[in-house]
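Holo model, nicotinamide-adenine-dinucleotide. Inputs:
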Amino acid sequence: MPDDPIIPIIEGDGIGPDVTRAARRAISAAVETSSGGRRRIVWFDVPAGETALFRYGDLLPGPTKDAIREYVVALKGPLTTPVGGGFRSLNVTLRQTLDLYANVRPIYWLPGVPSPVTHPERLNLVIFREATEDVYAGIEWERGSPEAKRMIDVLEHQFNVRVRPDSGIGLKPMSEFGSKRLVRRAIRYAVDHGRRSVTLVHKGNIMKYTEGAFRQWGYEVARDEFADRTVTSDEVLRSHGGKVPEGRVVIKDVIADNMFQQLLLRPDEYDVLATPNLSGDFLSDAAAAQVGGLGVAPGGNIGDAIALFEPIHGSAPKYAGMDKVNPTAEILAGVMMLEHLGWEDAAVRLREAVKAVIAAKVVTYDLARQMEGAREVGTAAFADAIIERFHGA
Ligand code: NAD
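Output:
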């Protein structure tokens, strides 16, 4: 790891430039002040989204993908995806073309952030969501298209399955390879970070050969590859008198709909979650709401070689260019990026500064309107307040 890595950065659409510029300044300052000026990030602006379409006629230019492949760690702001026809989500395309198979979302509460639940501090999760398969694989055909008609015909004549002729058709592929590498990453993370459990989330009672298989493959990874570091919740009850053996991560599973209840009712019983693509998407937004919403929730898209960090929220076009929205989610995506680079000191410094500024009630409008006695600041001024902390102001 050089002291001055080149990191590609996509500003993004809508509020993207506002939050990305704020995050970039705060991340750079954390790196420089924590290393006494020895380290710095050389940001490399790469285009994607609406600006790229306007300038180069391409939403995701080849050189942008090449730069991320070359420099392996990158940061991005949100990108707009029009609903319905037109193009597929750029985020989904980025995850698939760069094989960023694990969408990682740490969800924890920052003291002072308004929350709709009584004890937001009881939730402290890391969600590992599979990001290349499931119904998000993009294998679907429009109602009435020749492909949809042909699929319906094949289903009827070769599989004796009747589907209404006016149906759109989508496929839900979930492979052993794709599921196991996701669960492997979740368990490895839990083992390395001293986490207590990994919960396999699935809807296997209904979709046996996809979601049910995800559960089974997950237990197999634990048994075959982490036998000396894990224990299943069944084994804890059967062979260990209900007490988790020292140094073991508990592997358990919960059905997806129940998981939503569990996160509200018994949040402290969950730690690391490994989920298929669709349920992980729903769950992570719901869990983010519990700790204060999308404005504070970061994510990472991680493959075997490449990692791309981002805020979970979208491009909120109505606030574009107003210097108004909350850059916390993208700054915390920067914290994840610094941890990934192995710059733990800068990561801790940045996260603690965010916490301190919010605890001092210096916040953007989204939090200010829910907090008593808050001082409302714009996006750039929030970043300034963080940077001032590094200089002891
Ligand atoms: P959104 O997250 O952009 O905005 C929903 C609402 O959340 C906003 O109106 C705003 O009130 C609030 N909000 C979002 N970010 C905030 C912030 N940083 N600070 C304060 N408030 C914030 O969701 P949307 O309106 O459903 O989507 C808009 C566009 O973004 C769509 O094109 C969508 O496809 C895209 N999107 C992109 C990503 C991504 O790039 N990863 C993720 C989600 C949505």
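Residues 11 and 17 are 5 Å apart (CA to CA). The mean pLDDT is 94.
Archived with the compound record.
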